[in-house]
Amino acid sequence: MLILGIESSCDETAASVIEDCRTIRSSVISTQIEEHRKYGGVVPEIASRRHCENILGVTRKALADADTELADLDGIAVTYAPGLIGALLVGVNFAKGLALASGKPLIPVHHIAGHIATNYLSHPDLEPPYLCLVASGGHSHIIEVLSYTKFRVVGRTRDDAAGECFDKCARAMGFPYPGGVHVDKAAQSGDPKAFRLPHPAVAGNEFDLSFSGLKTNVINLLHHAEQKGEHIDRNDLSASLQATIAEILTGKTMLAAEALGYKKIALAGGVSANSGVRAAMAEACEKRGYSFYMPEKSLCGDNGAMIGCQGSYNLIAGITADESLNAVATLSMDEI
Ligand code: KG4
Ligand code: ZN
Fold it and tell me: Torsion-angle region of residue 149: left (phi > 0), alpha (psi -120 to 50) or beta?
Protein backbone atom coordinates (compact mmCIF):
# COMPACT_ATOMS: atom_id res chain seq x y z
CA MET A 1 0.00 0.00 0.00
CA LEU A 2 1.38 3.42 -0.99
CA ILE A 3 0.01 6.59 0.63
CA LEU A 4 0.98 10.17 -0.13
CA GLY A 5 0.92 12.33 3.02
CA ILE A 6 0.57 16.12 2.77
CA GLU A 7 1.11 18.53 5.68
CA SER A 8 0.62 22.33 5.64
CA SER A 9 -0.92 23.21 9.01
CA CYS A 10 1.71 25.72 10.13
CA ASP A 11 5.05 26.80 8.68
CA GLU A 12 6.25 23.58 7.03
CA THR A 13 5.10 22.47 3.59
CA ALA A 14 5.72 18.73 3.58
CA ALA A 15 4.93 15.64 1.52
CA SER A 16 5.93 12.02 1.87
CA VAL A 17 5.25 8.61 0.37
CA ILE A 18 4.66 5.84 2.93
CA GLU A 19 4.71 2.16 2.04
CA ASP A 20 2.69 -0.39 4.02
CA CYS A 21 1.92 2.02 6.88
CA ARG A 22 5.41 2.24 8.39
CA THR A 23 8.11 2.54 5.73
CA ILE A 24 9.18 6.00 4.58
CA ARG A 25 9.83 5.85 0.82
CA SER A 26 10.39 9.63 0.68
CA SER A 27 9.96 12.69 2.88
CA VAL A 28 10.33 16.27 1.68
CA ILE A 29 10.00 19.26 4.03
CA SER A 30 10.16 22.89 2.96
CA THR A 31 10.41 25.05 6.05
CA GLN A 32 9.56 28.76 6.23
CA ILE A 33 11.25 29.36 9.58
CA GLU A 34 13.80 31.84 8.19
CA GLU A 35 11.06 34.04 6.78
CA HIS A 36 8.93 34.09 9.95
CA ARG A 37 11.96 34.57 12.23
CA LYS A 38 12.16 38.32 11.51
CA TYR A 39 8.64 38.73 12.94
CA GLY A 40 9.37 36.59 16.02
CA GLY A 41 6.62 34.08 15.17
CA VAL A 42 4.56 32.62 12.34
CA VAL A 43 2.69 35.22 10.25
CA PRO A 44 -0.39 33.28 9.04
CA GLU A 45 -0.85 35.05 5.71
CA ILE A 46 2.79 34.65 4.75
CA ALA A 47 2.57 30.96 5.69
CA SER A 48 -0.44 30.44 3.39
CA ARG A 49 1.27 32.17 0.47
CA ARG A 50 4.44 30.12 0.84
CA HIS A 51 2.43 26.87 1.03
CA CYS A 52 0.72 27.93 -2.19
CA GLU A 53 4.06 28.47 -3.91
CA ASN A 54 5.77 25.35 -2.59
CA ILE A 55 3.19 22.59 -2.35
CA LEU A 56 3.36 21.37 -5.95
CA GLY A 57 7.18 21.25 -6.02
CA VAL A 58 7.39 19.53 -2.63
CA THR A 59 4.82 16.89 -3.69
CA ARG A 60 6.48 16.30 -7.07
CA LYS A 61 9.80 15.77 -5.31
CA ALA A 62 8.26 13.37 -2.75
CA LEU A 63 6.78 11.28 -5.59
CA ALA A 64 10.04 11.37 -7.58
CA ASP A 65 12.22 10.49 -4.55
CA ALA A 66 9.95 7.50 -3.91
CA ASP A 67 10.16 6.53 -7.58
CA THR A 68 6.36 6.69 -7.67
CA GLU A 69 3.65 8.27 -9.76
CA LEU A 70 0.17 9.40 -8.76
CA ALA A 71 -1.26 6.33 -10.48
CA ASP A 72 0.73 4.01 -8.13
CA LEU A 73 -0.82 5.47 -4.98
CA ASP A 74 -3.59 3.88 -2.92
CA GLY A 75 -4.66 7.13 -1.29
CA ILE A 76 -3.91 10.79 -0.66
CA ALA A 77 -3.78 11.78 3.01
CA VAL A 78 -3.85 15.38 4.17
CA THR A 79 -3.86 17.32 7.45
CA TYR A 80 -7.28 18.99 7.66
CA ALA A 81 -7.20 20.06 11.35
CA PRO A 82 -6.12 21.71 13.61
CA GLY A 83 -3.83 24.56 12.55
CA LEU A 84 -3.74 27.93 10.82
CA ILE A 85 -6.85 27.97 8.68
CA GLY A 86 -5.31 29.60 5.60
CA ALA A 87 -2.36 27.23 5.75
CA LEU A 88 -4.56 24.13 6.15
CA LEU A 89 -6.78 25.20 3.24
CA VAL A 90 -3.82 25.09 0.84
CA GLY A 91 -3.04 21.45 1.67
CA VAL A 92 -6.69 20.37 1.77
CA ASN A 93 -7.55 21.92 -1.59
CA PHE A 94 -4.38 20.63 -3.20
CA ALA A 95 -5.05 17.09 -1.92
CA LYS A 96 -8.65 17.31 -3.15
CA GLY A 97 -7.42 18.28 -6.60
CA LEU A 98 -4.99 15.35 -6.68
CA ALA A 99 -7.66 12.92 -5.46
CA LEU A 100 -10.15 14.15 -8.03
CA ALA A 101 -7.64 14.01 -10.90
CA SER A 102 -6.32 10.55 -9.97
CA GLY A 103 -9.53 8.93 -8.69
CA LYS A 104 -7.70 7.91 -5.48
CA PRO A 105 -9.32 8.07 -2.02
CA LEU A 106 -8.91 11.32 -0.09
CA ILE A 107 -7.93 10.64 3.55
CA PRO A 108 -8.40 13.30 6.26
CA VAL A 109 -5.79 13.25 9.04
CA HIS A 110 -5.87 15.09 12.38
CA HIS A 111 -2.49 16.76 12.94
CA ILE A 112 -2.06 15.42 16.49
CA ALA A 113 -2.89 11.87 15.37
CA GLY A 114 -0.12 12.39 12.81
CA HIS A 115 2.37 13.35 15.54
CA ILE A 116 1.41 10.24 17.52
CA ALA A 117 1.99 8.11 14.40
CA THR A 118 5.67 9.17 14.22
CA ASN A 119 6.23 6.49 16.85
CA TYR A 120 5.02 3.78 14.43
CA LEU A 121 7.66 4.97 11.96
CA SER A 122 10.40 4.82 14.60
CA HIS A 123 9.27 1.61 16.38
CA PRO A 124 8.09 -1.28 14.19
CA ASP A 125 6.89 -3.19 17.30
CA LEU A 126 4.64 -0.45 18.75
CA GLU A 127 0.91 -1.20 18.71
CA PRO A 128 -2.03 0.40 20.55
CA PRO A 129 -3.26 0.62 23.23
CA TYR A 130 -0.84 2.95 25.01
CA LEU A 131 -0.72 6.39 26.61
CA CYS A 132 0.87 9.24 24.63
CA LEU A 133 2.10 12.65 25.73
CA VAL A 134 1.89 15.03 22.76
CA ALA A 135 3.72 18.32 23.31
CA SER A 136 4.17 20.78 20.47
CA GLY A 137 4.05 24.49 19.70
CA GLY A 138 0.27 24.56 19.66
CA HIS A 139 -0.75 21.54 21.78
CA SER A 140 -0.03 19.72 25.02
CA HIS A 141 -2.17 16.65 25.51
CA ILE A 142 -2.14 13.36 27.38
CA ILE A 143 -3.98 10.93 25.12
CA GLU A 144 -5.16 7.36 25.41
CA VAL A 145 -4.39 5.75 22.04
CA LEU A 146 -7.13 3.10 22.11
CA SER A 147 -6.51 1.86 18.58
CA TYR A 148 -4.78 3.18 15.45
CA THR A 149 -7.74 5.49 14.85
CA LYS A 150 -9.48 5.91 18.23
CA PHE A 151 -8.26 8.37 20.81
CA ARG A 152 -9.38 9.76 24.16
CA VAL A 153 -7.93 12.95 25.55
CA VAL A 154 -7.40 12.55 29.29
CA GLY A 155 -5.50 15.78 29.94
CA ARG A 156 -4.82 18.99 28.06
CA THR A 157 -3.27 22.37 28.69
CA ARG A 158 -5.62 24.98 30.08
CA ASP A 159 -3.62 27.81 28.52
CA ASP A 160 -0.26 27.75 26.70
CA ALA A 161 1.28 24.69 25.08
CA ALA A 162 4.69 23.49 26.31
CA GLY A 163 6.34 24.58 23.03
CA GLU A 164 4.78 28.02 23.32
CA CYS A 165 6.22 28.33 26.84
CA PHE A 166 9.67 27.35 25.53
CA ASP A 167 9.38 29.81 22.63
CA LYS A 168 8.04 32.82 24.61
CA CYS A 169 10.63 32.39 27.38
CA ALA A 170 13.34 31.94 24.76
CA ARG A 171 12.25 35.17 23.09
CA ALA A 172 12.48 37.02 26.42
CA MET A 173 15.99 35.58 26.83
CA GLY A 174 16.93 36.99 23.41
CA PHE A 175 17.03 33.73 21.43
CA PRO A 176 15.74 33.71 17.83
CA TYR A 177 12.39 32.11 16.87
CA PRO A 178 11.58 29.28 17.34
CA GLY A 179 13.45 29.34 20.63
CA GLY A 180 12.80 25.85 22.03
CA VAL A 181 15.86 24.37 20.38
CA HIS A 182 18.06 27.27 21.60
CA VAL A 183 16.89 26.76 25.19
CA ASP A 184 17.77 23.08 24.76
CA LYS A 185 21.30 23.98 23.57
CA ALA A 186 21.89 26.60 26.28
CA ALA A 187 20.58 24.21 28.95
CA GLN A 188 23.45 21.80 28.21
CA SER A 189 25.86 24.25 29.90
CA GLY A 190 23.53 25.44 32.68
CA ASP A 191 22.55 24.43 36.21
CA PRO A 192 18.96 23.13 36.32
CA LYS A 193 18.75 23.99 40.03
CA ALA A 194 19.88 27.61 39.64
CA PHE A 195 16.32 28.99 39.60
CA ARG A 196 13.29 27.69 41.49
CA LEU A 197 10.45 28.05 39.00
CA PRO A 198 6.76 27.42 39.76
CA HIS A 199 4.86 24.23 39.02
CA PRO A 200 1.23 24.86 38.10
CA ALA A 201 -1.63 24.07 40.45
CA VAL A 202 -4.55 23.09 38.21
CA ALA A 203 -7.94 22.64 39.85
CA GLY A 204 -10.43 20.13 38.43
CA ASN A 205 -9.03 17.47 36.10
CA GLU A 206 -5.79 16.32 37.77
CA PHE A 207 -4.28 15.35 34.37
CA ASP A 208 -4.66 18.85 32.88
CA LEU A 209 -1.59 20.98 32.31
CA SER A 210 -0.82 24.70 32.48
CA PHE A 211 2.22 26.65 31.33
CA SER A 212 1.20 30.33 31.36
CA GLY A 213 2.19 30.85 35.02
CA LEU A 214 5.65 29.45 34.39
CA LYS A 215 6.02 31.58 31.25
CA THR A 216 4.98 34.76 33.08
CA ASN A 217 7.33 33.95 35.95
CA VAL A 218 10.34 33.58 33.64
CA ILE A 219 9.49 36.74 31.67
CA ASN A 220 9.01 38.76 34.89
CA LEU A 221 12.27 37.43 36.30
CA LEU A 222 14.12 38.66 33.19
CA HIS A 223 12.37 42.07 33.18
CA HIS A 224 13.00 42.72 36.87
CA ALA A 225 16.67 41.79 36.50
CA GLU A 226 16.97 44.10 33.51
CA GLN A 227 15.35 46.99 35.41
CA LYS A 228 17.76 46.52 38.31
CA GLY A 229 20.73 46.11 35.98
CA GLU A 230 21.35 42.56 37.24
CA HIS A 231 22.79 39.83 35.04
CA ILE A 232 20.91 36.58 34.55
CA ASP A 233 22.84 33.59 33.28
CA ARG A 234 20.91 32.42 30.18
CA ASN A 235 22.36 28.91 30.40
CA ASP A 236 21.23 28.50 34.02
CA LEU A 237 17.77 29.92 33.31
CA SER A 238 17.41 27.69 30.22
CA ALA A 239 18.44 24.61 32.21
CA SER A 240 16.00 25.48 35.02
CA LEU A 241 13.15 26.17 32.59
CA GLN A 242 13.78 22.96 30.65
CA ALA A 243 13.97 20.88 33.83
CA THR A 244 10.71 22.42 35.10
CA ILE A 245 8.82 21.81 31.82
CA ALA A 246 10.17 18.25 31.72
CA GLU A 247 9.08 17.65 35.34
CA ILE A 248 5.58 19.01 34.70
CA LEU A 249 5.05 16.96 31.53
CA THR A 250 6.55 13.78 32.96
CA GLY A 251 4.78 14.11 36.32
CA LYS A 252 1.33 14.46 34.77
CA THR A 253 1.93 11.65 32.28
CA MET A 254 3.05 9.27 35.04
CA LEU A 255 0.04 10.27 37.16
CA ALA A 256 -2.31 9.45 34.28
CA ALA A 257 -0.47 6.21 33.45
CA GLU A 258 -0.79 5.00 37.02
CA ALA A 259 -4.45 6.01 37.37
CA LEU A 260 -5.46 4.46 34.04
CA GLY A 261 -3.22 1.40 34.27
CA TYR A 262 -0.97 2.02 31.25
CA LYS A 263 2.49 0.45 31.19
CA LYS A 264 3.24 1.43 27.60
CA ILE A 265 4.03 5.14 27.19
CA ALA A 266 4.89 7.22 24.12
CA LEU A 267 6.03 10.79 23.50
CA ALA A 268 5.33 12.90 20.37
CA GLY A 269 5.18 16.46 18.97
CA GLY A 270 7.82 19.12 18.33
CA VAL A 271 8.80 19.30 22.01
CA SER A 272 9.60 15.58 21.97
CA ALA A 273 12.89 16.68 20.36
CA ASN A 274 13.86 18.32 23.66
CA SER A 275 16.72 16.45 25.32
CA GLY A 276 15.50 17.21 28.86
CA VAL A 277 11.95 16.00 28.15
CA ARG A 278 13.24 12.86 26.40
CA ALA A 279 15.57 12.01 29.29
CA ALA A 280 13.00 12.73 32.02
CA MET A 281 10.31 10.62 30.33
CA ALA A 282 12.74 7.75 29.66
CA GLU A 283 13.97 7.81 33.27
CA ALA A 284 10.47 7.95 34.81
CA CYS A 285 9.32 5.04 32.64
CA GLU A 286 12.40 2.98 33.41
CA LYS A 287 11.94 3.54 37.15
CA ARG A 288 8.39 2.19 36.95
CA GLY A 289 9.16 -0.68 34.57
CA TYR A 290 7.08 0.86 31.75
CA SER A 291 8.06 0.46 28.10
CA PHE A 292 8.78 3.84 26.53
CA TYR A 293 8.66 4.99 22.90
CA MET A 294 9.74 8.28 21.36
CA PRO A 295 10.22 9.29 17.72
CA GLU A 296 13.60 9.79 16.08
CA LYS A 297 14.55 13.46 16.38
CA SER A 298 14.11 13.96 12.63
CA LEU A 299 10.41 13.03 12.93
CA CYS A 300 9.54 15.20 15.96
CA GLY A 301 8.74 18.39 14.02
CA ASP A 302 5.99 18.68 11.42
CA ASN A 303 6.48 16.38 8.43
CA GLY A 304 4.52 14.59 5.72
CA ALA A 305 5.60 11.07 6.77
CA MET A 306 3.49 11.24 9.94
CA ILE A 307 0.45 12.19 7.86
CA GLY A 308 1.12 9.39 5.37
CA CYS A 309 1.52 6.88 8.22
CA GLN A 310 -1.66 7.90 10.06
CA GLY A 311 -3.43 8.22 6.70
CA SER A 312 -2.58 4.57 5.97
CA TYR A 313 -4.25 3.45 9.20
CA ASN A 314 -7.23 5.74 8.54
CA LEU A 315 -7.69 4.19 5.09
CA ILE A 316 -7.56 0.67 6.54
CA ALA A 317 -10.25 1.75 9.05
CA GLY A 318 -12.37 3.16 6.20
CA ILE A 319 -11.84 6.80 7.17
CA THR A 320 -11.98 8.72 3.90
CA ALA A 321 -13.51 12.03 2.80
CA ASP A 322 -15.35 13.31 -0.25
CA GLU A 323 -14.91 16.59 -2.09
CA SER A 324 -16.75 18.49 0.65
CA LEU A 325 -13.77 18.06 3.06
CA ASN A 326 -13.00 21.38 4.74
CA ALA A 327 -10.11 22.62 6.85
CA VAL A 328 -10.84 23.14 10.57
CA ALA A 329 -8.70 25.47 12.71
CA THR A 330 -9.70 23.99 16.09
CA LEU A 331 -10.80 20.39 16.49
CA SER A 332 -10.36 18.23 19.57
CA MET A 333 -9.11 14.66 19.15
CA ASP A 334 -12.27 13.61 20.98
CA GLU A 335 -14.33 14.83 18.04
CA ILE A 336 -12.70 12.74 15.32
O1 KG4 B 1 5.02 19.93 16.34
P2 KG4 B 1 5.65 21.20 15.94
O3 KG4 B 1 6.72 21.17 14.88
O4 KG4 B 1 4.56 22.21 15.48
C5 KG4 B 1 3.28 22.24 16.05
O6 KG4 B 1 2.45 21.36 15.71
O7 KG4 B 1 3.08 23.13 16.92
O8 KG4 B 1 6.24 21.84 17.28
C9 KG4 B 1 7.00 23.01 17.25
C10 KG4 B 1 7.40 23.35 18.67
C11 KG4 B 1 7.98 24.75 18.80
O12 KG4 B 1 7.41 25.38 19.92
C13 KG4 B 1 9.46 24.47 19.01
O14 KG4 B 1 10.14 25.47 19.73
C15 KG4 B 1 9.39 23.19 19.79
O16 KG4 B 1 8.39 22.44 19.15
N17 KG4 B 1 10.69 22.49 19.78
C18 KG4 B 1 11.47 22.35 20.88
C19 KG4 B 1 12.64 21.69 20.47
N20 KG4 B 1 12.55 21.44 19.13
C21 KG4 B 1 11.34 21.95 18.72
N22 KG4 B 1 11.25 22.72 22.15
C23 KG4 B 1 12.20 22.43 23.05
N24 KG4 B 1 13.38 21.82 22.73
C25 KG4 B 1 13.63 21.41 21.47
N26 KG4 B 1 14.77 20.78 21.18
ZN1 ZN C 1 2.88 19.76 14.80
Answer: alpha
Distance from residue 105's CA to the centre of ligand 1 (Å): 31
State the fold for domain 2-115+300-335: Nucleotidyltransferase; domain 5 (3.30.420)
Question: In terms of CATH architecture, what is 127-298?
Answer: 2-Layer Sandwich (3.30)
Q: Is 136 touching ligand 1 by the criterion CB < 6 Å?
A: yes
Residue of minimum CA distance from atom 24 in ligand 1? 274
Write out pLDDT tens, residues 3-40.
999 999 999 999 999 999 999 999 999 999 889 998 98
pTM, whole model, 2 decimals?
0.97
Pairing of strands 264-268, 291-293: parallel
Q: Is 82 in the pocket of ligand 1 (CB under 6 A)?
A: no
Cβ distance 161 to 222 under 8 Å?
no
Instruction: Please answer whether residues 27 and 21 qualify as being in contact, where contact means their C-beta atoms are separated by less than 8 angstroms.
Output: no
Domain locations along the chain: 2-115+300-335, 127-298
Q: How far is the CA of 269 from the centre of ligand 2 (A)?
A: 6
